[in-house]
Amino acid sequence: MDIVVCVKQVMDADTPPSGFRIDARANDVVSTSGLPPVINGFDEQAVEAALRLKEAHGGTITVLTLGKDLALDVIRKPLSMGADELVVVWDAAFEGGDSYSTAHGLAAAIRKIGTYDLILCGRQASDGDAGQVGPGIAELLGMPCVTFAKSITATDATVRIERAIPDRYEVVEAPMPCVITVSNELGAARYPTLRGVMAARRKQPVTWNAEALGIDPSTVGAAGARTKVLRLFLPERGGECELVAGDTPEQAGKRLAMKLREAKVI
Amino acid sequence: MNDGRGVMVFGEVSESITYELLGIGRSLAAALGEPLSCVVLGSGIRDQARELIAFGADTVSVVDDPLLKDYQADAYVTVMHRLCQEQRPNILLLGQTIAGRDLAPRLAFRLHTGVATDCSELAIDPTSRLLLQTRACYGGNVRATVVCPDARPQMATVRAKTMAALARDDSRTGDVIDLDAGIDASCLRTRIVDESRETATGVRLEDARVVVAGGRGMGGADAFKQLDTLATVLKGAVGASRAACDAGYAPASAQIGLTGKVVAPTLYVAVAISGASQHMTGCSRSKVIVAINKDPAANIFKEARYGVVADYREVLPAFTEMCRELLE
Ligand SMILES: Cc1cc2nc3c(=O)[nH]c(=O)nc-3n(C[C@H](O)[C@H](O)[C@H](O)COP(=O)(O)OP(=O)(O)OC[C@H]3O[C@@H](n4cnc5c(N)ncnc54)[C@H](O)[C@@H]3O)c2cc1C
After folding, report:
1. Residue B298: CB within 6 Å of ligand 1?
2. B121 within some domain
3. CB contact under 8 A, A171 and B193
4. Which numbered atom of ligand 1 lies nearest the CA of B241?
5. Strand, coil or helix: what is A174?
6. Chains A, B: CB contacts under 8 A, how many?
7. Closest chain B C-alpha to A214 CA, distance in angstroms
8. Is some CB atom of chain B closer than 8 A to the CB atom of A71?
């Protein structure tokens, strides 16, 4: 079973608001925290899902990423977890892309990879939070798509996906090839082993530009984007917090209840 | 393709967001001087169409077909794609629901247009007459206003409880149009092989006037039971952070936040929750937020109206008891 997993390098989602600034001219968020970038959490869990399938059925896992200024140590992490190949796609033509044009770039790379039974993506990226690339790739490649996977099992030519849907239990069967997006309910991604890290260091990523993909430059980057960001800004934060204290924590708890009563909240 | 006209709402009969979509849709339609339509897909849903008119739609298209009983992407995308090509809306609004999150990107790509997901503010730019779509990104730490300049429809999914529904007005009139789904089972490449609904007990989290939520700092599933007690006293429901759900302290259906539920109760009590932006996304519209956390530097105190800095184990029993006394 051959699997392509799409991953994105992002700013660490735990970066506090004091750890980045907005570049208003470039309409971009710039990290100032010194924290290294990470692989988007849901994407790491998509790699985990792929590894579990590989353990059960064999095959190869190709990790695909599109982005510029990538930290090699960061994007190699899936290899050190056990993935087989890493494909890095970048070209100046991809600059300024939105979900729409990025999915076009990834879909072109998947076509070039050629053989695959499954495409796995995270349910959304923790920077854009759009959740479009997985379903978009499915549309562009004419494949079915199942979103928010909690578990994936495969038999012959079909996959069974339990979806993570609040208040509901839903199991969907899909033919292969198809696209599946992975949610955190799948469980934590494994840690790389030392051996995995050493082996990953010896692997060079395959790099492709727009020409290698044979892609029409007007479909990618800013040229292919359908949406345009007018403004990025910081949200306004709430007002003052009144801290309720007491001689003991118990007393503080009682006072809190009385405060809420006075304010007619309860 | 720059020839769209009208605002279209993708309605879901079981979701209250449909009324919120009609509310904002009405005001966008008024700003443009264009009509507001609503499309509902399902099986045995025709009776509900009139109600959508009472809540603001000028026309309602009903696509009633057994194949549309459950949301299934292949069927819904096919029907909505055809409908959009026939009706050519200028704007299409969907809810950021389980169906909407899945349908919107699929449909946008098939229509070769863009979509802004999880919007919490929508307006018409008076000069360009474009839909200004404001949404959170970076887990809620950053906001972005985006437009879809050329392609149509301009598509957005809308976060629950960010838009006001109109008051029901049964004197409003409008047309209900029945449309054929025009699909057969062969369009479905995926198949739901097993499904069940959790039967909710007590107050529904999304509708509760009081929500008591616990985080990773609760330390275990047993400790979470103390929150049940408080919720019972306050006639509320219990929610949780993702970290608490991931750790198995609470069921996934209790998760509040960016990828969980959105609540806006009168009172939100956050116990041992750090207040990460992705969590606050789901509760920041609560009237009053109360935080109990042992870390005075926790972000939750930046968002809360009242707080106690202490170990919850020492505060919660006394707080619960006092609430009980006061409410007797
Ligand atoms: C893309 C993305 C989507 C996400 N979606 C969601 C979402 O929908 N919902 C969500 O909640 N999170 C979401 N998260 C995760 C989010 O970023 C946080 O990691 C999570 O909300 C943290 O949960 P927590 O506050 O319970 O845990 P922690 O951040 O670990 O906080 C625990 C808190 O408990 C306090 N504490 C510990 N012990 C005690 C005690 N005895 N008494 C009092 N206080 C104590 C600590 O001081 C701390 O503040 C998402 C993350 C990403 C990247």
Report:
1. yes
2. yes
3. yes
4. 11
5. strand
6. 261
7. 20
8. no
Minimal-distance CA residue to ligand 1 atom 18: B276
CA distance linking residue B270 with residue B308, whole number of Å: 11
Helix B98-110 vs helix A133-141: crossing angle, to nearest 10: 40
| Contacts of residue A91, Cβ cutoff 8 Å, sequence gap at least 6 | A209, A210, A211, A220, A221
A30 close to B (CB below 8 A) = no
**Ligand 1 atom 2 nearest Cα:** A126
Query: Which atom belonging to ligand 1 lies closest to the Cα atom of B243?
Result: 23
DSSP B12-44: -TT-THHHHHHHHHHHHHHHHT--EEEEEEESS
Question: CA A45 to CA A125: how far, in whole Å?
Answer: 12
Whether residues A230 and B287 touch (CB distance < 8 A) is answered with no
Which of B141, B159, B274 has the most ligand 1 atoms within 8 A of CB, as the residue to mutate? B274
What range defines the domain where residue B215 resides? 205-327
Q: Has domain A2-224 been given CATH number 3.40.50.620? A: yes
CA angle, residues B22, B25, B27, in degrees to nearest 5: 115
Q: What is the pLDDT along chain B (328 residues), one digit of tens a residue?
A: 457 999 999 999 989 999 999 999 999 999 999 999 999 999 999 999 999 999 999 999 999 999 999 999 999 999 999 999 999 999 999 999 999 999 999 999 999 999 999 999 999 999 999 999 999 999 999 999 999 999 999 999 999 999 999 999 999 999 999 999 999 999 999 999 999 987 767 789 999 999 999 999 999 999 999 999 999 999 999 999 999 999 999 999 999 999 999 999 999 999 999 999 999 999 999 999 999 999 999 999 999 999 999 999 999 999 999 999 999 9
In a domain, B302, yes or no: yes
Cα-based torsion angle of the residue sequence A44, A45, A46, A50 in order, rounded to the nearest 10 degrees: 100
Query: Quick one: B112 and B21 in the same domain?
Result: yes
For residue B108, being part of any structural domain is answered with: yes
Check if the beta carbon of residue B75 is closer than 8 Å to that of residue B68. yes
CB atoms within 10 A of CB B3: 7
Q: Do A172 and B253 touch (CB under 8 A)?
A: no
B242 CB less than 6 Å from ligand 1? yes
The string of pLDDT tens digits covering residues A65-124 is: 999 999 999 999 999 999 999 999 999 999 999 999 999 999 999 999 999 999 999 999
Which of A130, A144, A256 lies at the smallest CB-CB distance from B319?
A: A256
Is residue B75 within 8 A of residue B67, CB to CB? The reply is yes
Q: Is B215 in the pocket of ligand 1 (CB under 6 A)?
A: yes
Q: Which atom of ligand 1 is nearest to the CA of B300?
A: 49
Residue B146 and residue B21 share a domain: yes
**Domain containing residue B294: CATH number:** 3.40.50.1220
Q: How many residues does chain A have?
A: 266
SS (H, E, C) B54-95: HCCCCEEEEEECHHHCCCCHHHHHHHHHHHHHHHCCCEEEEE
